[in-house]
Amino acid sequence: MVRGRKDVVNFPVDDCHDGEGTIYVRQLLGYEPLLPVPGNPDDFDSLINFMHETTLPVGTTIGLHPHEGNEEIYYVVEGKGEMTVDGNTFVMEPGTACLTKSGSKHTFRNIADTELKIVVIEAVFDKKDKKNKPQH
User: Fold this and answer.
1) 3 closest CA partner among 42, 57, 33
2) Does a structural domain hold residue 135?
3) What are the backbone dihedrals phi and psi of residue 17, each rounded to the nearest 5 degrees, phi first?
4) Which of 40, 110, 22, 30 is nearest to 72 (CA)?
5) pLDDT score at 19
6) Residue 88 maps to a domain
């Protein structure tokens, strides 16, 4: 399976997880029902829920949210962001990855004067938690 930027909509998401501003999400593979973004829930046979490319314009944030029964990876492609996981804050630049484990909560914000692009991947531990709801 191959799906690229040209194949999916760069979908606007306002106040993601009660964050600030409008971010843009390209749901490249899989499906995240917590976001109003079309997806493909049958892409993965494994316990991966989704892989998407997210763009945070200047001044935007992804609000503080918990992870229970899943893990999520943020990988910075371009720009500069500030990640806070369980109260610990650090700067992420291109080539930096952060893993948020089950039982943790995190928030992320663009701290540069240019847009920030990240790749986000989420996987669950238990098949019953697989997000395979119908496509938007």
Assistant:
1) 42
2) no
3) 50, 40
4) 30
5) 96
6) yes
Domain total of the chain: 1
In the chain, what percentage of residues exceed pLDDT 90?
83
Residue of 34, 72, 44 lying closest to 25 (CA atoms): 34
φ, ψ for residue 26, nearest 5 deg = -105, 105
> In the chain, pLDDT over 70 holds for what percent of residues?
96
pLDDT tens column, 37-81: 889 989 999 999 999 999 999 999 999 999 999 999 999 999 999
- Give me the phi and psi of 39, to 5 degrees please: -150, -175
Q: Which H helix or E strand runs over 107?
A: strand 105-110
CATH number of the domain that residue 69 is part of: 2.60.120.10
Indicate the DSSP class of residue 33: T
Confidence of residue 133 (pLDDT cuts 50, 70, 90): very low
Provide the Cα torsion 62, 133, 51, 48; round to 10°. 110
SS (H, E, C) 34-103: CCCCCCECCCCCCCEEEEEEEEECCCCEEEEEECCCEEEEEEEEECCEEEEECCEEEEECCCCEEEECCC
